[in-house]
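Handout, section B. The chain below has 368 residues.
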Amino acid sequence: MFTKDEFLNRVQNDLDAFCDKQSSDFEAISPDLVTVVDFTRSLLQGGKRFRALFCYYSWVSSLSGRTPSQDDLNGIVGIGAALEMFHAAALVHDDLLDQSDTRRGAPAIHKRFESMHKDKIWAGSPERFGVAGSVLVGDLMLGWSSEIFGQALLHTSDKHIEAACRDEFSLMRVEVMAGQYLDVLEENAAATRSISEAVGRAEKVILYKTAKYSIEAPLRLGAAFAGADSASLGIFTQFGIPLGIAFQLRDDVLGVYGDPSVTGKPAGDDLREGKRTVLIALTKEALEIKSPSMNTTLEELLTSRELSSDQIAFLQKLIQDSGALAKTERMIVELGDRALMTLDAAELDEHGKAALRQLALKVVNRDA
């Protein structure tokens, strides 16, 4: 068994080795392609690794006292690496769709390609080159995540376990794309839709875009690789869904009030991008009763996509004064408590449960 740091080091080593091979293969085609792998590698260096860790400790908690073989250990590391590659791919596409300039305190991938175009003084549009480069890198990383995942499953000879893991991974890929589309749709169509249904729509985006793929899917993947039955997988869903929603609600709060030096994103970045989060939906719901005219102002600012620092500060105060921030914070606490109650009642390995509890607390209390 690994310690937390040993597991994360193994995951990083697997990702580094994979990138080394891709860099060598791409360079044989053309030296120009090395940049693609370099950008991928740089994005894989940071992050909180929540997905890999939830996967690992759900696996640990589902072993039922069985001592894992070396193949088992190599397999769970590979699954963790595949999840991190998939997450990085989603970030590349998400930053492009949201037109976010930064990621983890550094330029987003599309901005890196854009800067390269400008530095080289190439013909055409730097912005279009940035879009094209990031789409292709994100697509490559999605393919690479499946390749790493497939290699990880070679470490089990149990066809039932392999099939269960493939089902979980496939479902995760479909659901996150569905959630991503619903998110983009809401950003563009929200002004034409009923305010009374805004919270429900935002919650559905959270469920499919984040809660399932960030928490539930890694939990179920780890448990499936340990051979867990359907009832046990259901427990991880009951634990993972409320925790995943709390995880995204915390992200929504940080997207409006987070410290840029900690989050690596500009202050109020979600407001600048016009994101239709639960926090915003609750604000609109409250303002529709208290001050419809202010709701109109909120809508105009969210759709402008070009906010000054004073306008950001105005919206931050408006959201807080509406009561939406306090309500969101209560929701985070309630969802976190519900998840922990499910975990505490589950008949799982105590070491794994303790680690999952610590991870859950970090998810709801993080500042980045």
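Note. Residues 159-189 form the longest helix (31 residues). Compare this with the example in section A.
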